């Protein structure tokens, strides 16, 4: 047997194992003086009765009975191997790059001879521990809060419309106030002709800066009603209440306004298609549409974003053959982020893909499908409709239309009856069109620019006091009742 191929000398038969156990029991009785007495030391004369041929675990090296002194031998699993008997908790050896030993438990030193023969089987574990050691010695990762924001020469594009924008600067912004008539005229002329001059890097050239500032304040709008603010249009009933609206009860006047508005919208789309207009906005009392020319926002074709939308609007667009997508919903689906609206997934058409039959497959596999009452088709349909409606008026309801479908969207908006309010303070008033360039039927409008800096150096107070008074007060509704100073530091009560 010992000469056969594949035979392992460390293998033992079950009968031999039982014989060794009986021999060990007789040997233990002779080694110990009593149940609690001291253990006798091994001697060469006891080699025939001691388990000299017993290995600590199989496979493994034989114990040297001459070098071991002490009590009885711990019983081990005869069918165990190195892989399932080694435990890092019992013996932890970590080696450095030069082969030196980093750490070892002192209580396990007596097993060095037994473990020395099994180090080859622990090569993978040692490499793993070595990698963990190098990882622990590497410098700690920098906390995200300590990382300074990147400094860029440009900032991300924000396509949202705002009613107010505040710029702050440590330098004076006096050049943005009170332009001269010639500077304002030159700025408006450059705006109409799309002429741009390089801006000076020094604030000493105030005329050029004022001209460029006036050029950037101009925009074009349709319709133009001086006595009514036409932006914003969503939730702007207070702005229209009490205003004179002669078209509200005049159907002929409403048709005339819509006819002129349709011409202006068609003109804007033609400019956009010819790449003579980069973008324009359509602001209705229910939603806002942003049209962008091809090449903007990473799109190779004309695109349109509608926000917010409702189920009725999406259904009407699908009925007209307008293909669209829900970009925010698709981003959440890719990133697997939880939805605020519902846990179901949404498709490109705005409906939720919820396979009710597939959700009961696991019940069928368990054999309990008959004990669970399956919802009927009406309940399922009502739940789907409720989930779809819950998406309405949410940021996730934004709709994106691209390519030739934007032209179909233009015709849809012109013929959409719900685009104009039928009742209320905005009844009969067409949506507002805003663009950075001139278009048919548009009127030039100017944004109002006012400066956050007043010179109070000659007001009669100390400059430090003036600087303190210019800061916003943090007391709120309370007042100071006690102030004390110690070592040029103030403490107070309010």
Automatic annotation (TrEMBL):
<comment type="similarity">
    <text>Belongs to the DONSON family.</text>
</comment>
<feature type="region of interest" description="Disordered">
    <location>
        <begin position="1"/>
        <end position="80"/>
    </location>
</feature>
<protein>
    <submittedName>
        <fullName>Uncharacterized protein</fullName>
    </submittedName>
</protein>
<dbReference type="GO" id="GO:0033260">
    <property type="term" value="P:nuclear DNA replication"/>
</dbReference>
<feature type="compositionally biased region" description="Polar residues">
    <location>
        <begin position="40"/>
        <end position="50"/>
    </location>
</feature>
<dbReference type="InterPro" id="IPR024861">
    <property type="entry name" value="Donson"/>
</dbReference>
<dbReference type="GO" id="GO:0005634">
    <property type="term" value="C:nucleus"/>
</dbReference>
<keyword id="KW-0539">Nucleus</keyword>
<keyword id="KW-0217">Developmental protein</keyword>
């Amino acid at each position: 047997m010992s000469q056969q191929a594949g035979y392992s000398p460390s293998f033992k038969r079950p009968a031999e194992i039982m014989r060794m156990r009986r021999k060990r029991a007789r040997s233990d009785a002779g080694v110990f003086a009593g149940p609690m007495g001291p253990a006798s030391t091994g001697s060469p004369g006891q080699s025939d009765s001691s388990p000299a041929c017993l290995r600590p675990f199989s496979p493994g090296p034989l114990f040297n009975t001459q070098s071991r002194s002490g009590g009885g031998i711990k019983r081990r699993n005869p069918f165990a191997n190195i892989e399932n008997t080694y435990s890092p908790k019992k013996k932890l050896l970590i080696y450095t790059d030069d082969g030196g030993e980093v750490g070892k438990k002192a209580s396990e030193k007596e097993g060095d001879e037994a473990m020395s023969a099994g180090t080859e089987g622990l090569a993978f574990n040692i490499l793993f521990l070595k990698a963990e050691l190098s990882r622990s010695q590497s410098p700690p990762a920098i906390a995200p809060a300590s990382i300074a924001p990147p400094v860029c020469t440009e900032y991300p594009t924000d396509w949202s419309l705002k009613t107010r924008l505040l710029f702050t600067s440590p330098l004076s912004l006096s050049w943005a106030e009170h332009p001269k008539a010639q500077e304002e005229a030159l700025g408006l002329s450059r705006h109409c002709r799309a002429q741009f001059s390089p801006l000076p890097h020094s604030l000493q050239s105030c005329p050029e800066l004022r001209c460029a500032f006036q050029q950037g304040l101009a925009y074009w709008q349709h319709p133009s009603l001086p006595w009514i603010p036409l932006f914003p249009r969503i939730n702007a009933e207070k702005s229209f209440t009490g205003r004179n609206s002669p078209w509200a009860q005049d159907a002929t006047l409403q048709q005339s306004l819509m006819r002129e508005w349709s011409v202006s919208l068609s003109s804007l789309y033609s400019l956009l298609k010819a790449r003579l207009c980069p973008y324009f906005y359509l602001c209705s009392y229910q939603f806002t549409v942003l049209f962008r020319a091809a090449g903007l926002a990473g799109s190779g074709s004309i695109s349109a974003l509608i926000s917010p939308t409702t189920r009725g609007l999406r259904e009407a667009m699908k009925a007209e053959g307008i293909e669209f997508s829900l970009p925010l919903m698709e981003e959440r689906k890719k990133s697997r982020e939880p939805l605020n609206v519902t846990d179901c997934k949404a498709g490109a058409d705005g409906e939720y893909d919820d396979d009710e039959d597939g959700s009961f497959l696991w019940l069928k596999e368990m054999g309990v499908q008959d004990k669970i009452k399956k919802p009927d088709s009406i309940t399922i349909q009502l739940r789907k409709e409720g989930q779809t409606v819950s998406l309405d008026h949410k940021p996730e309801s934004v709709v994106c239309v691209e390519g030739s479908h934007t032209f179909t969207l233009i015709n849809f908006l012109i013929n959409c009856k719900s685009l104009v309010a039928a009742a209320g303070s905005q009844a009969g008033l067409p949506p507002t069109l805003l663009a950075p360039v001139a278009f048919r039927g548009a009127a030039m409008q100017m944004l109002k620019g006012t400066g956050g800096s007043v010179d109070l150096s000659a007001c009669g107070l100390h400059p430090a006091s003036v600087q303190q008074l210019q800061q916003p007060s943090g007391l709120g509704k309370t007042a100071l009742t006690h102030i004390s100073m110690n070592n040029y530091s103030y403490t107070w009560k309010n």
